[in-house]
Amino acid sequence: MAKRTGEKYLSILLAAIKIFARYGYHRTRVSDIAREAGVADGTVYIYFNSKEDILISLFQEMMEQFVQGLQTELDACGNAEEKLKKLIHYHLETLEKQPDQAKVTQLELRQIDQSINEGISRPLMDYFQMIEEVIKEGQDTGFFRPEINVRTARKVIFGAIDEVVTSWVMSKKPYSLSNLSEPVFSLLSRGFLI
Amino acid sequence: MAKRTGEKYLSILLAAIKIFARYGYHRTRVSDIAREAGVADGTVYIYFNSKEDILISLFQEMMEQFVQGLQTELDACGNAEEKLKKLIHYHLETLEKQPDQAKVTQLELRQIDQSINEGISRPLMDYFQMIEEVIKEGQDTGFFRPEINVRTARKVIFGAIDEVVTSWVMSKKPYSLSNLSEPVFSLLSRGFLI
Amino acid sequence: MAKRTGEKYLSILLAAIKIFARYGYHRTRVSDIAREAGVADGTVYIYFNSKEDILISLFQEMMEQFVQGLQTELDACGNAEEKLKKLIHYHLETLEKQPDQAKVTQLELRQIDQSINEGISRPLMDYFQMIEEVIKEGQDTGFFRPEINVRTARKVIFGAIDEVVTSWVMSKKPYSLSNLSEPVFSLLSRGFLI
Amino acid sequence: MAKRTGEKYLSILLAAIKIFARYGYHRTRVSDIAREAGVADGTVYIYFNSKEDILISLFQEMMEQFVQGLQTELDACGNAEEKLKKLIHYHLETLEKQPDQAKVTQLELRQIDQSINEGISRPLMDYFQMIEEVIKEGQDTGFFRPEINVRTARKVIFGAIDEVVTSWVMSKKPYSLSNLSEPVFSLLSRGFLI
DNA sequence: GATGAATGAGAGTTCATTCAT
DNA sequence: AATGAATGAACTCTCATTCAT
Fold first, then answer.
1. Same-domain pairing of C168 and C101
2. What's the whole-model pTM score?
């Protein structure tokens, strides 16, 4: 039923990022988004099924771009170690450059009933998949410890990066996020122990 | 204004954990909680200021217990390495034993407007503090790499554990959570590289 | 924010007069008015900001018509004495012909917090102004006693008429109100003394 | 059921005058009055049947005193003209000396559903009676015009005084109220005409 | 008599969504 | 496709009143 293409689709999406980031998901009215996008309230429902659908679509569009961009970057890397380093950097850098998106991703998106959310978890799965592939490659090529459980490792990596971003968003961003990619990588790759 | 002690305070809190875990924060009506607790709707407002206050108080009570229990455990450990291992294990084990609390902490709690939430971040700070102290101790005693930035390390550790728990909660818990403490510790302490 | 024009605006206003007069302001539910007006509950809030706003708007619309009609009548009078007579008669006659409005004006309107009510006092001021102008004219043309304080005189006149109406409304109207205009005028113009 | 005597009865009444005058009837909570009176919430219900009953009792006590005092004053007057003059003065002076009571009488009392209020109209009737008796006496003794309808005259007199007081209360009392008794009497007794 | 914790009915208002134009 | 007026379900919170102690 939802159209999901066209100029107005984009205006609404851009308006939504802005307004969600400013007021938060629950405090945002659909009419606020419509006004910011310069369309009528009803028009929003030509392009989206619901208010929640806007937020989810937002995330999907972002993830699609993110995953594509990440793939390109990874393809240019020589080995798994480089790839992991690149992945961390790309994640942090992308969100640093788009603070509204970062706010929506780290805070607003989590206000949606997680119980069902196919719409959120599916696009994430693609990213998770990529992380796991990097790990597997690292094991196959003898860079990473072979006894590591891939799935657990992925959770640790993603959780670490995600928390670093969340901290940054909540702290109102007084420091560079992408500068943290090196220490995060170092921690994850070499660990704490001497 | 809110009373915050007494038998009914506890009944309401226990009822809220159960109901929030079952239906989710937004789908829960205050009257649902009141009914489960066996009190009148109005009684809830003698002990709590608002529906949101219930959720936050829930978290605060849980964190207080958690932090206390963790402190006891850490005090019994010989060195920082052990402490870190214990911390990870305690975090996973505690939530595994209280799946309702885990659900509320990992999913429902994040549906509250993060923008203001002193009530959520303050108790977390205490936990963050403890993690950072373990790291510092590890550095002082020569177990952990001294060049590591303590704050970043804390985010990596907490993020990793938190993501492991979230995954478990969302997966409907078909596997043991506490069994993951060993691999998570191994990853964080030794890293990926061979 | 409130629209304040259109067909439905009027339906709601008319419904409100009827229902307020029948049940009283506090016992009337917004949904009662909506049903009587044949609109949805929410529609009321497109045209009015609040339940109180309906009552105040009601009064404002009535006063606007009242003041306009009165002006026309006064313009047709030859002198101040005639004007005062006409004013009293017009006031009593108007409310006698609109018993629902009379009830709302004399009883329900006064149940609103007087502390703030700009919305009530402003329209009244216009009427007070007209009364005072009649008095001044009477003094200028040598009909009325020149030493009389205009403001006090206005209060006496308005208070007298208002009380006569209130008595009539509370007595459930078993007698003609407009028939009292002659004796009221006589009392106010000539006084008690022989 | 209500006790209506005793030390606490009085404390509650005095507290109520103060709080009603300050916050208005509807914005006052029974617990506010109880706190001000230094008693428990439940105690209020030993002495009064309801919140409305407090307000009405307040008025009744005031009117009883008022009517008694007025009677004493009138008894000391030589003739009906003097009595009318005294009555107006006494009314204005009494409320001027008790501004909290004035506020409650002129504004808060009218927020009660007038439709039924026996409790308000009965005490008023006594006062109305007294006014009418003064008028009759004036007619009998040849001071007042005999053709005047007593009831209408009473409404005109009471309405005039009442409006003068209401204006004063709403204006936040920047002028002397009792000073107006002379001009009001002059207007009512001699009228407007030259 | 006095207390105050507990009750629970009650309604104004919001806003996502629809649909006639 | 676009509009925006209209809909009506949904729900938190207040507070007068009660009653066991």
1. yes
2. 0.90
